[in-house]
Amino acid sequence: MVSHKEFVGAGKTPGLQVWRIENLDLKPVPKALHGSFYTGDAYLLLFTTSAPSYNIHMWLGDECSQDESGAVAIFATQLDDFLGGGPVQYREVQNFESNTLVGYFRSGIKYQKGGVASGFQHVVTNDMNVKRLLHIKGRRAIRATEVDMSWSNFNKGDCFIIDLGKDVYQWCGSQCNRFERLKASQVAIDIRDNERNGRAKLHMVEEGEEPAAVIEALGPKSTIAPGTDDEKVDTSNRKKGALYMISDASGAMKVSAVAPSSPFKQAMLSAEECYILDNGVDRNIFVWKGPKANMSERKAAMSAGQQFIKDKGYSNKTQIQVLPAGAETTLFKQFFIDWKDKDETTGPSKAYTIGRIAKVEQVPFDASTLHSDKAMAAQHGMVDDGKGKIWRVENGAMAPVDPSAYGHFYGGDCYLILYSYRLGGREQHIIYTWQGLRCSQDELAASAFLTVKLDDSMGGSPVQVRVTQGQEPPHLMSLFAGKPMIIHSGGTSSKGGQSQTSSTRLFHIRQSSSRATRAVEVEASASSLNTNDVFVLKSPKAVFVWRGMGASDEEMAAAKHVVGFLGGSAAQVSERKEPDDFWSALGGKKDYQTSKSLQNVVRLPRLFGCSNKTGRLAVEEVPGDFNQSDLATDDVMILDTWDQIFLWVGNDANAVERNGAPKIAKDYVDSDPSGRRGLPITTIKQGAEPPTFAGWFQAWDPKMWETDPLARVFGLPKCQKPMLSPSLG
């Protein structure tokens, strides 16, 4: 077996590893620059969960050379070999990436001009001598493409980022709406935090109100073009598939038809063979490797897929997924009417999910297993040894938090967490800035200033990560020596507190897909319960630990820490066996999330947005693990929980979206290759979400839309909402 020196640390710990092809060799890309791709290059990505399971992606830029695309294909095959042939392999092409890949980068993908051949390097610096223009496209999958610094590249329908180093300007066209502005701000924040180490200032610029610095950078302003229609694949043939068998029995690879159209039966796949599932009309090809197929067929899977695309005359932008048996993705399984995962008939516990966020194990961190790259640390879920320091922002200064309170975060506060660890014999640092949803504007501004000050005091070397309450990354949640991160809805940890805590409190405990556990204070009402999770209820008279039918032992273990903090002796309560005083403490019985599919999640819920922003009604899936902030208030969203479909109508959705979405939802179910028919479709309006819907989002916050999230990013007064176009939703 051929092995590369870079493979030594490959797949050893959960998370994402990225390499670029440089001089036909692999060079690691620093963590702070993950998600940034040069269009003249090819990249190899490995995503590892703690199951462990693996995804290998080879990414090809529009201008990468034939030699580079050939080299990355060889390295992908070698890495697949090195990991025992078990990974799912993806071929990714610029602008047409899979949702799996896009889901790794919540703040979007950035395309930069140039590449290795032009001398462009992936280096994290504090260089402020930057001058570039980024065109932001996409409402769900965000892509930022570097274009020439010229007004001729602007249009009224999109957001652009004018990056001048110390100042980063987000320019918003008069026809772009609030949700697009919010998504574009994620790119701007990423540039500030990861590329400038928190030293740049963000500015919001409206079309027609450009400041002098922007005019100076771009020259005299010319006429701005109207908004353009995004290129969309025709959706009328979506999910149509054909099945072929690959065989080399004759000595040459041969493809023969098995079934001309979906849905298929799982029995059509023989363990002794390899197959191609052709969904070319939707730019997808799947190659399935039978566990008993011969080695030459299994190794040739990716090249067979590429040859198939050529023979069929499909676009070279077509995605290819190579799937070993047992690691089939949701996209693949949906073409089968009777798909059963291994052991599914006996009722699986929570399944390890392939291609989602890594599961971070609570194990002592061994730095020797990592590459000697200083920026790799933050992605590996390193468990804190208790040597980190935490400060609360108080009166514009840093007030140390008592170590006994580490792991507790209050919604009325901002915190700085300095996490230090040794790597390659040198001390390394990460600064997390955690911002509560109920902290003041002054505290938000002070937290940003104090982060830069702390970074400066350490020579500008720390990695900075800014975190908003409810959006904590897995590695931050894993820092507290095996204890859950406990988030209090409001108040402060400063002596005296800003607000009196309620006499009755309810904490929602959930283990995320990354296996990091978080306890979040929610409204003390029976409607907040969820059959999939554990809750701790404290009333003036008693403390209860409520275990839902789908809850895990890890969630129960985390509950002990919450009880320890709240005080008292807890009574354990099982779902459906609750005593009367439990319900009375919650104000009486109410409906809550009891979907059976939550208890044994095998098919993950999926979230889609329906928008006619481009002039016709289009549907787009939200990539990665979704959360409440992915619900676009100017769209209609479809939540597919497998046994039920929800239509969520945003307050700013327009008439076309409101009227067209129900038909889309019905067509979506009726055209499902797995043969689902007649599922209930529930329509819900923003602000009136029942627990059967809200339960799919951890720690649902019914007040989330009362404040403007853009105001938090750009420091606008809370009442000032960015302009909306009256003609668009």
UniProtKB/TrEMBL annotation:
Coiled coil residues, start to end: none
GO BP: actin filament severing; actin polymerization or depolymerization; barbed-end actin filament capping; cell projection assembly; central nervous system development
GO MF: actin filament binding; phosphatidylinositol-4,5-bisphosphate binding
Domain Gelsolin-like: 26-101, 142-214, 258-332, 398-477, 517-559, 619-693
Keyword Nucleus: yes
Subcellular location(s) of the protein: Cell projection, Lamellipodium; Cell projection, Ruffle; Cytoplasm, Cytoskeleton; Melanosome
Any Pfam family: Gelsolin
Superkingdom of source: Eukaryota
Primary location class: other
Recorded family membership: Belongs to the villin/gelsolin family.
The protein's name in its UniProt record: Macrophage-capping protein
Gene from which the chain derives: scinlb
